Amino acid sequence: MATPQTVIVTGGAQGIGLGIARCFACRNANLIIADRAVEKAREAADQLRAAGATDAAALACDITDRGQVDAMVEQTMKKFGGIDVLVNNAGICPFIEIMELSPEVWQKTIDVNLTGAFHCTQAVARRMIPRGRGGRIIFITSGADTLTSPKQVDYAAAKSGLRMAMVGFSTALGKYGITCNAIAPGMILTPMTAFHWEIPENAALLKQRVPMGRIGTPEDIGNAAVFLASAEASYINGITLRVDGGLWGITPI
């Protein structure tokens, strides 16, 4: 029987992060759910063990705090002896029009979506390198890494920066057998987006715009993450995989 992968998912207590964790649980991974919402993370860990995870644990972690990130990585190493996969999923999107956005909210969006991933990637890579077994680091970006709107300027700035941080890390870590790739989700139904997509007219527009004719699920993103973390993806490095049902190919009329 293959040794289970040890996987850290930041922001894994709900939404896309939980969907990613479920897909790894189905492959018997050891999972660390690193999240500020530690009670939700504990509930998620219970669900993941029931779903097939070899083990799952919740760790309280604010990824904007380097000290907390380092402690989370140390606790993971102590529990499982190594880290095979990091999924940089934690993120926020305030949905505030740019001319009304405060400097404080702007900075928080950058800190969570971009700087937090820097902290986690650097801290985890520093553990992967001396172990000598390579690793997989996956960044959850967005279609907003290239396109934006007046209410997503801070989010898009952070996600486009995250895409280039991924590329930069891929050039630095490839020689150690550590691949860095991104997944750019399209329209995915999560607790953060449900308020928008459950409006009937928005749901109807979605079916018109997405060639697949449906909204995506967190597990759609999770299945892509499992592939990028697999041995079969060992020569894929520095790319962004768009998981959006074909939305990116549609030209607005």
Quote the average pLDDT: 94
CATH superfamily: NAD(P)-binding Rossmann-like Domain
Shape: globular
Alpha carbon gyration radius = 17 Å
Tell me the name of the CATH class: Alpha Beta
Number of spatially distinct domains: 1
Total helices: the number is: 8
Helix/strand/pairing class, anyone? alpha/beta
Q: Strand portion, in percent?
A: 15-25%
**Quaternary structure annotation:** single chain
Total strands: the figure is 7
CATH topology: Rossmann fold
**Biggest sheet, strands in spatial order?**
3-2-1-4-5-6-7
What's the helical proportion of residues? 40-55%
Element-by-element helix/strand order: EHEHEHEHEHEHHHE
Terminal Cα span: 53 Å
Q: In this structure, how is the largest beta sheet organized?
A: 7 strands, parallel
Q: Any low-confidence stretches, pLDDT <50, length ≥5?
A: none
Level-2 CATH architecture: 3-Layer(aba) Sandwich
Q: What does this entry look like structurally?
A:
With 253 residues, this protein is an alpha/beta fold. 44% of the residues are buried. The protein has eight helices and seven strands; from the N terminus they run E-H-E-H-E-H-E-H-E-H-E-H-H-H-E. The mean pLDDT is 94. Strand 5, helix 5 (153-173) and strand 6 (178-185) form a beta-alpha-beta unit.
Annotation keywords:
15% strand; alpha/beta; 253 residues; 7 strands; 45% helix; Rossmann fold; single chain; globular
Set down the secondary structure blueprint.
Elements: E1 6-10, H1 15-25, E2 30-35, H2 38-50, E3 55-60, H3 66-80, E4 85-88, H4 103-131, E5 135-140, H5 153-173, E6 178-185, H6 194-197, H7 200-209, H8 218-228, E7 240-243
Parallel strand pairs: 1-2, 1-4, 2-3, 4-5, 5-6, 6-7
